[in-house]
Amino acid sequence: MRTPNLLLAAVCAALLTPASGAWACASCACGDPTLTSMGGEQPFEGRLRLSTMLRAWGHTEGQQNLDAQRLRELRMDVAVAYAPRPWLVLAVNLPLQAREVRDVSLARERGWGLGDVDVSAKAFVWRDRDFSPDNLLSVVGGVKLPTGPRLAARDGTALGLDAQPGSGSVDPMGGLAWQGFRGSWSFMASVLGFLPTRGREDFRLGASVRTSVGAQYQPSTRWAVRLGLDSRAERAADTAGVSEEYGGGFIAYVSPDVLFSPGMDVVVQAGVRIPVVNQLRRVSSTPIAQLSLAYDL
What we know:
This is Transporter. This protein has 297 residues and is mainly beta.
């Protein structure tokens, strides 16, 4: 029994249900007050969530002072997720990206614009009970579409692939996700596979498997802390069937986050992804800084 959760739901319902309407907070509707980021929310029919996320990251390929090429990106994702059924969540994500590529000769390319749209669906195939479940198992599927424009420099020549916000490829993905709730604690785990296709200049990113596990402690309804471990195992990219000299291998990040709710149905999340294991071939990665805002309508 999760008496505090049921009590919170009852209080929310009493406070938010006027005589002429039936509006209720998202925590009341799903029966659990756990603060969740985009993609981790519990489903209920009609749930609509908007979010935006800022990310800053980079990596360097090759050897310093020899053939190094540095990529830096600042990215803002705008996403919407809607649950047309209690067991189904549909989502669309649109990125806005600013990229800078600089090689060892100090030659530099900059590109910014809309990137490739992601569309996805999450189907909850099992839950231990209908209202306020302790365990949720879902199947995830989606595809990245080649919606990003091809950018050109001032002289009209196309920017290099690394400076482009879009790849020009259709990249499907799929996998499984689990969520568990135990009082003030919640847990999650997922495994997703990505299978990129060929895009511009006959370039194809390598297939990859990405995993994520995490635990969250929430001592109050206003804030929570989370610690996770994210990993990616990938094949090297190739151009026309010839493998690239860089990339391919395995990388893992430790991922601490803080979540805060400044008001009803609003969640702010700040965190960083710190690379702790890097077995990528001739690629060094920076930490990934993240800041997001989610709002349930």
